[in-house]
Amino acid sequence: MINPINVGELREKVRSATPFPFFAIDNFLDPVFARQVYDSFPSFQDAMKVGVTFKTVNEKQKIQITDSTKFAPHVFELNRLLAAPEWTGILSEAFDIPNLLSDDKLVGGGMHQTGSRGRLDVHVDFNYIAERQLHRRLNVLVYLNPVWQAEWGGNLELWDRKVERCDHSFQPLFNRCVAFETSDISYHGVTAVNCPPEHARRSFATYYYTKEPPSHWKGESHDTIFRSRPDEVVRGRVLMPAERAARFAQQSVQKLKRGIRRMF
Question: What CATH number is given to the structural domain containing 97?
């Protein structure tokens, strides 16, 4: 179901990529299968009933369904293919990362939908799952939008390490796959989604890990770190700090409650 890939050519693309290792492949899946996966996605409204909805400053109008038991058969099959040794072997060779592991829990992955007026700010992803001792190494995104117009936005952007320059911008076109290495400099985000209300930006996301730490590992784990774009002054100086403060306060309250429960 994944179309043939020349791994040598893919490896060369990754090696020469900037601002960090990545590749993009169009016509990634057999087109009939890709359409079957798209047709199996729930509507945006139905996805809201079974998935997790994000309504924060940094992530807005975004839904993700990570529970594979809720996947329709063709979506389940795509998830299986992206976790299979044949595909993880291709990724390992292309990115020169041995012993890659797929995530059967699909933390943060699975079916993604972003509706009209949605957004995902520029960020680097969390780098470690402590309870399973897994280091995050790669993101793979498969886009499933048979109808998508440029003015609808929703482009995946890859930024330089200082978030001063966007080096690449990919429209979420049907059957396009983008994979990139995750690190403390792999800043990426999604431009504002301006599709009509009856449409949504759809993709399937899966992430890969290793038990072994990457060479850049400094022994420090972190959650997702958001940054503002150069032209987002108010967002960077007011909205994002307020969001971080609110999140910190909420986490502090939760820790306090857990401590009280342990006491009694």
Answer: 2.60.120.620
The span from the CA of 30 to the CA of 50, in Å, is: 28
Residue 2: inside a domain? no
Do 253 and 180 fall within a single domain?
Answer: no
Residue type, 118: G
CA distances from 264 to 69, 121, 227, 251, 261 (A): 36, 41, 41, 20, 5
The domain total for the chain is: 2
Answer whether residue 1 is part of any domain: no
Residues 192, 113 share a domain: yes
**Taking a C-beta distance cutoff of 8 angstroms, is the pair 120, 59 a contact?**
yes
Residue-level pLDDT, tens digit, the chain, 264 residues? 999 999 999 999 999 999 999 999 999 999 999 999 999 999 999 999 999 999 888 999 999 999 999 999 999 999 999 999 999 999 999 999 999 999 999 999 999 999 999 999 999 999 999 999 999 999 999 999 999 999 999 999 999 999 999 999 999 999 999 999 999 999 999 999 999 999 999 999 999 999 999 998 999 999 999 999 999 887 877 777 777 776 666 666 566 555 656 655
**Residue whose tokens read 């072997």:** 89
Structural domain of 238: 232-264
Alpha helices in the chain (DSSP H): 7-16, 31-40, 44-50, 73-83, 85-95, 233-234, 240-263
